[in-house]
Design a protein that fits this description.
mainly beta, OB fold (Dihydrolipoamide Acetyltransferase, E2P), two-stranded antiparallel sheet, 2 helices
Length: about 120
């Protein structure tokens, strides 16, 4: 794990954002652990679109092309990852209405196939 970062599950982050984002204007970067789903690489833009999920929630994410270019390889559907970036903002009242989390690059961690920033 990266020193100085708190690792949250997708569910924990959704609940945290929903309850606290309105009170706190700006949160620092967080690490969020989840399983990759809905993975889509857009050749035209070079952006990587995906979601991370766990048993209680799902967060949509985007990694912009400048970060995708620095990845040693793209993750596969179902890979367990740690995504680093600012928490998504709320666009409604339900956790599922969070805007996409903007992800920094990650790489493969040797322990258990987890990808890390």
């Amino acid at each position: 794990m990266a020193a100085g970062f708190q690792v949250l599950t997708v569910t924990q982050l959704c609940r945290y954002v929903k309850s606290l984002l309105e009170e706190q204007r700006q949160l620092g970067d967080v690490l969020v652990k989840g399983e990759v789903t809905n993975l889509a690489y857009r050749q035209s833009s070079g952006h990587l679109y995906f979601s991370i999920r766990d048993e209680g929630g799902l967060i949509r994410c985007v990694m912009f092309s400048r970060y995708v270019q620095s990845l040693p390889e793209l993750p596969e559907e179902g890979a367990l990852v740690l995504v680093r970036g600012p928490p998504p903002s709320t666009s409604g009242t339900a956790p599922s209405s969070l805007s996409p989390m903007i992800s920094s690059p990650w790489g493969r961690d040797g322990a258990g196939g987890i990808w890390t920033p």
